[in-house]
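ok so i was messing around last nite and threw this chain in just to see what happens. nothing serious, just curious
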Amino acid sequence: MTTTRTDASGRLRLILRVDGWSTAVFGVIMLAGAQALSGPLGLPTSWSIPFGVAMLGGAAALGLIAGYPQIPPRHAAFVVAGNTLSCVALLVLAFSGLIPLTGLGVAFLLAGALVVAVYAALELMGLRRLTAA
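result:
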């Protein structure tokens, strides 16, 4: 069974949209719940607010890329690289002691790293299908 460029683009587009929406929701939670989450997670609001803003920007970029009639492979590659770097950054923050995280805060960042890694893997598979089609 061969994959057409349209099929591959549609699959990648879906993954990008789901990634974008979940990133937007998470960004809103980080912004709206910055103070409430500070105590249980140990994540200072001076960190969670910039994270939330960056996530909203990332969500907008994902939405724009997903909206292209033909998804440019270099844009998809940029998304994969960005998610991979985000995963690594979350792991570093979880274990470096740079932020005074609670145990729940460490688990929170590790869960975020896992989610971002899954998106990066799915988007990489979509990119490979797109370039192979």
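not much to say yet. The chain has five helices and no strands.
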